[in-house]
Amino acid sequence: MLIRTASDIPSSEITPEDLYQGRRRFIAQAGSLALAGTLAPAQVRAAPAPLGVLTKSPYSTNEASTHYKAVTTYNNFYELGTDKADPSANTHRLKPTPWTLRIEGLVNKPRSIAIEDLLKLAPLEERIYRMRCVEGWSMVIPWVGIPLSTLIRQADPQGSARFVEFVSHYDRSTMTRGVLEWPYTEGLRLDEALHPLTLLAVGLYGEVLPVQNGAPVRLVVPWKYGFKSAKSLVSIRLVERQPVSAWTKAAPAEYGFFSNVNPEVDHPRWSQATERRIGEFSKRRTLMFNGYADQVASLYTGMDLRRFY
Ligand SMILES: Nc1nc2c(c(=O)[nH]1)N[C@H]1C(S)=C(S)[C@@H](COP(=O)(O)O)O[C@H]1N2
Ligand SMILES: [Mo]
Fold first, then answer.
1. What separation in Å is there between the alpha carbon of 117 and the centre of ligand 1?
2. Tens of pLDDT along 183-219?
3. Looking at CB atoms within 10 Å, which of 16, 100, 103, 292 has the fewest?
4. Ligand nearest to the backbone CA of 139
5. 239 has which bridge partners?
């Protein structure tokens, strides 16, 4: 064959810069366009352009991933609009490159890290996670990322650091005004942030993270409601006191600090006992800690989860 397809290109030829600039994806698209004349559509729909060699994670679920189309067009990213279809229609409002992420606050080695360098910090892993939105729907998403603990440990937290605050990018001139207090912020206890399931995602479906999913880097905390997974991060700040997230500020009775998925604790306005997996017809029972109880329940031993919702 004369035309090299994405899968013919050894991953050793792909640099983090290529990945980040989306050149890899371009190569793949060019390849499939060239093939379109000779192959039936089903065969043309090739595997997505890989983000180099991905380590497969033992933390991945075996459940079927939600279709790429749904993952990338049914989104909550209020800065880009409050309807599910808005973020994918308004991607021009956020430029994910160049980008720097700060790790700061109570750390001995604060740092501003360019997104290209973040990709080199640790081998990129594929993590297929169940994600559960507080609104009652769920998806299975094959993320690509690095454990957040890698970045935090490199920054060398000080003894007084007990919580981590996350701050999303906000540009008043292009993004939603009102609705929430901007920028979008979230928080975790330090031990939650260091938990091996907690991921800094830079991609999904093996590709660079689409803008609507929080490009170029977003948090992913699979045992908590989706709003904890703050998108398009500019700062990760270690602090002494429990941060107040944007959603808690907006509606403290509805959105607590922990926000662990819990089928036994209803949202004040609706039940959390079941969920609709996007793409499925009938409802599923929601699992404690979104099915991650074996890994994370010990973080909350002795806590009243009704009180600390
Ligand atoms: N900055 C920012 N992050 C955000 C949101 C948002 O509006 N702004 N929405 C949250 C909510 S409610 C959910 S369910 C997830 C959705 O992520 P996804 O669109 O990649 O599935 O992002 C979370 N992170
Ligand atoms: Mo959500």
1. 24
2. 999 999 999 999 999 999 999 999 999 999 999 999 9
3. 100
4. 1
5. 163
